[in-house]
Write a structure and sequence with these properties.
This protein is of the alpha/beta class. It has a single domain, classed as Vaccinia Virus protein VP39 (Rossmann fold, 3-Layer(aba) Sandwich). α1 packs across α3 and α4 packs parallel to α7. The protein is globular. The chain starts with a helix and ends with a strand.
């Protein structure tokens, strides 16, 4: 096992687990996943923070991540939920599934760190059924010019701290270009560094 495959998931949980205990984060994940149903794929699932929030309307759940070490930790979380979860190591830019396989695809805090947002979104759309949905939660570029300037200024430093995250990406227009937006919430997380507070949470339609 590569050192990176052990260290990155460890650091991910070291930083992330305390954040996941905050009521705001828990509520955001519940709202994100409330409408999930049918056969579901979560891309870039990390160590499985969403697993506890999937509703009973999900009949089949598959999660992917580009790092096997992330999924090993996700497996532990899946066991606690009692839900059967299929796990596949794969980057979102190259998903090993047939076209139109899933009713719902979920992505949370993912597009800030992918190599190619448009390619990732194209793959997400490809594996969704024609009448399916994409549920997303992403932190994005601020509409406040001062904050956006700070996002640009600190992008490199933050990328090192947060494992390749780019806090200044204007992600929502990229989602709009790939899908029909059905619902969207734009706001800010009430804590944490200002450069990662702005977010979008919503539902998009593949058709």
């Amino acid at each position: 096992m590569a050192v990176r495959d052990r260290v990155v998931p460890f650091v991910h949980d070291l930083v992330g687990v305390p954040m996941e205990k905050k009521p705001f984060i828990r509520d955001a994940r519940r709202r994100l996943l409330a409408g999930a149903g049918g056969r579901v794929l979560e891309v870039g699932a990390g160590t499985g923070y969403n697993l506890a929030y999937y509703p009973d309307s999900v009949s089949d759940l598959t999660i992917t991540d580009g790092m096997a070490g992330m999924l090993r930790r996700a497996q532990t979380r899946a066991q606690k939920t009692g839900r059967q979860v299929t796990m596949t190591t794969a980057p979102v830019e190259s998903l090993p599934f047939e076209d139109g396989t899933f009713d719902t695809v979920v992505g949370s805090l993912l597009l800030c760190s992918v190599a190619d947002q448009d390619r990732a979104l194209a793959e997400i759309r490809r594996v969704i059924k024609p009448d399916g949905q994409y549920l997303f939660l992403e932190h994005v570029r601020s509409a406040d010019p001062k904050v956006a300037h700070s996002q640009d200024r600190w992008e490199g430093v933050w990328g090192v701290i947060a494992q390749g995250c780019h806090p200044n990406r204007d992600t929502f227009p990229r989602i709009e270009s790939a899908f029909t937006i059905d619902q969207v919430e734009r706001s800010e997380v009430p804590f944490g560094p200002k450069i990662v507070r702005p977010y979008v949470l919503g539902r998009a339609i593949a058709g």
